[in-house]
Every structure is written in structure tokens, then in C-alpha cells.
């Protein structure tokens, strides 16, 4: 029962932080550090399950995107005319192009990244670094040139995909890296955020599938229950988080998220260097 409650907490954290540019993986690592998920008695098997849980729980967040943007992402919708259907297919092709860099690097170096970068110090450093980057970029006050997906070129989509590679390092934030990159490349905040959401679908699905394939332990009722509860909670919370972010950026910039990242990064460093 306690582990299910922990899964609920982790699901809430995942649902909120996946879409806000503040690093979901970073927050999940930190929460699990303070409140360890212990589903299996064997330490090695439990670590393998937790590592898988941290990634596969994102599947719930993917479903939230598909629910909220089903019409926009569906090229076969009977409510769309021929031009709109072509535009939707074009959008998906841009998403596929943008996914390629992170897909290649992720498959080749997944184990290496897990071994060397999944730790609180890396998370703290990346939180601070990209927090500063958000503040610098938002202070430039440049007028966006890409205000619709039709205006986004394939070259720009690929460049955003390169920025997404940076998010393989925990604490960076996948949405943070792609939004930051898209804004740097001239996209409006709304287009940057939505393209980041759409990129998450194949990236997070692929990452979840890869973790499940690599997992050597068999599912039990306990492990399956914890994973399902986490995914369901992440799905529900993600729906509200996405709606909040899209409403927020219509009136505000990303500076508040930059400040939050810096403050959290400093607190994490203080905790692990001074208190632990």
C-alpha cells in the first residue's frame, strides 16, 4: 500500500514536470532519493524496476497529448479539408525528422548515460545551467518568425531535434531543451511548446519500449500495480499541466521557470553537499 502511495506521488510529479520546462526525470530522481520506491526485496532487481518505472511512467503522459491534440494530430479526421490533412501529414513528417537525432544517440548511448549521469549532482548542475539559459534567452525580446507549423521548415525541425539530444542528460528537461531551442530558432512560445509536446509522443514511446525490452525481471502483481497506478496518475495530471502551460504562456514568458530551476538546483546541491 505504501509503495502504491509513492507511485501516486511520482505520477503527480511526472505529470506536472514532464510538460513544464523544469525536468521530469530530474524531479523523479530527486523524489525517489528522498522517498525511495521499494517494490522488490532484492536490491538489484528493485533498482532495475525503478529505473524502468522512471521511464515507462511517461507513457501515461503521452496519452494526455494524444487526448488533448487528437484532432490536430489526426490526418484522417473527417472534419478536416484536403489542405488541413496535408498540413497534418507535413507536421508529422517534421516530428519524425526532429526525432531522429535523439533516437540515434539514445539507442547507442542509453546504458552509458544511465551509468554516468543518473545522479543528483548532474541533475542540479543541469537545472541551474538551463535556468540561466532561459533567463538569457527571454531577455533578448526578439520577435518570433515561426508563428505556425506551416512556417516551420524541415531544417528548423531537425535543429530542434538536435536540441532534444541535450535532454538525454538528466536535469536538462526534454521540453525545456526543445522549447529553448525552438525559441532560439525563431519559433513563438506557443509553437515551441506544442512542437515539444508532439515530439514527446514518439520519443517517450520509444524510450519506454526500449526500457521494457531491456528489463530482465518478470512482472508480478506488485510491480505491475505500481507501474499502472503511476501511469494513470501521470496521465490525469498531465492533462491539467498541458492546459496550464498553454494558458500561462499566452500571457507570460519562461523566466519564472528559469528562476525555479536555479533555486531548485542550488537547494539540491546544498542538500547533497551539506546535509547528506
UniProtKB/TrEMBL annotation:
- Specify the protein's topology with respect to the membrane: Multi-pass membrane protein
HAMAP family from the xrefs? Undec_diphosphatase
**Which keywords label this protein?**
Antibiotic resistance, Cell membrane, Cell shape, Cell wall biogenesis/degradation, Hydrolase, Membrane, Peptidoglycan synthesis, Transmembrane, Transmembrane helix
List the protein's name.
Undecaprenyl-diphosphatase
Please give the family membership noted in the entry: Belongs to the UppP family.
Q: Which reaction does it catalyse?
A: di-trans,octa-cis-undecaprenyl diphosphate + H2O = di-trans,octa-cis-undecaprenyl phosphate + phosphate + H(+)
Top EC class of this enzyme: hydrolase
Question: What biological process terms from GO does the record include?
Answer: cell wall organization; peptidoglycan biosynthetic process; regulation of cell shape; response to antibiotic
Q: Which domain of life is it from?
A: Bacteria
Its localization reads:
Cell membrane
- Residue ranges spanning the membrane: these are 7-29, 49-70, 91-109, 115-137, 158-185, 191-210, 217-246, 258-275
What molecular functions are annotated in GO for this chain? undecaprenyl-diphosphatase activity
Which species does the entry assign this protein to? Holdemania filiformis
Q: What is its EC number?
A: 3.6.1.27
* A GO term from the CC aspect: plasma membrane
Function, as annotated, reads: Catalyzes the dephosphorylation of undecaprenyl diphosphate (UPP). Confers resistance to bacitracin.
Cited InterPro entries: UppP
Keyword Membrane part of the UniProt annotation:
yes
Q: Does the keyword DNA-binding apply?
A: no
Q: Which gene encodes it?
A: uppP
Share any extra remarks: Bacitracin is thought to be involved in the inhibition of peptidoglycan synthesis by sequestering undecaprenyl diphosphate, thereby reducing the pool of lipid carrier available.
Amino acid at each position: 500500500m505504501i509503495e502504491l502511495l509513492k507511485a501516486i506521488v511520482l505520477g503527480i510529479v511526472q505529470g506536472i514536470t514532464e510538460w513544464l520546462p523544469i525536468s521530469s526525470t530530474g524531479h523523479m530522481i530527486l523524489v525517489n532519493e528522498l522517498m525511495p520506491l521499494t517494490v522488490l526485496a532484492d536490491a538489484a532487481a528493485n533498482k532495475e524496476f525503478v529505473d524502468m518505472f522512471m521511464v515507462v511512467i511517461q507513457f501515461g503522459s503521452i496519452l494526455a497529448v494524444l487526448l488533448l491534440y487528437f484532432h490536430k494530430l489526426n490526418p484522417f479526421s473527417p472534419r478536416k479539408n484536403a489542405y488541413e490533412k496535408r498540413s497534418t501529414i507535413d507536421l508529422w513528417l517534421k516530428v519524425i525528422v526532429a526525432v531522429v537525432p535523439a533516437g540515434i544517440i539514445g539507442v547507442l548511448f542509453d546504458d552509458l548515460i544511465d551509468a554516468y549521469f543518473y545522479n543528483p549532482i548532474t541533475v542540479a548542475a543541469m537545472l541551474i545551467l538551463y535556468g540561466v539559459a532561459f533567463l538569457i534567452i527571454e531577455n533578448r525580446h526578439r520577435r518570433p518568425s515561426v508563428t505556425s507549423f506551416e512556417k516551420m521548415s524541415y531544417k528548423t525541425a531537425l535543429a530542434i531535434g538536435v536540441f532534444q539530444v541535450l535532454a538525454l542528460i538528466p536535469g536538462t528537461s526534454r521540453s525545456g531543451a526543445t522549447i529553448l531551442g525552438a525559441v532560439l530558432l525563431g519559433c513563438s512560445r506557443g509553437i515551441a511548446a506544442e512542437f515539444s509536446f508532439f515530439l514527446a509522443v514518439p520519443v517517450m514511446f520509444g524510450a519506454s519500449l526500449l526500457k521494457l525490452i531491456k528489463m530482465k525481471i518478470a512482472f508480478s502483481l506488485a510491480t505491475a500495480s505500481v507501474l499502472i497506478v503511476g501511469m494513470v496518475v501521470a496521465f490525469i495530471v498531465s492533462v491539467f499541466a498541458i492546459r496550464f502551460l498553454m494558458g500561462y504562456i499566452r500571457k507570460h514568458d519562461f523566466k519564472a521557470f528559469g528562476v525555479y530551476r536555479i533555486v531548485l538546483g542550488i537547494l539540491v546541491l546544498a542538500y547533497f553537499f551539506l546535509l547528506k
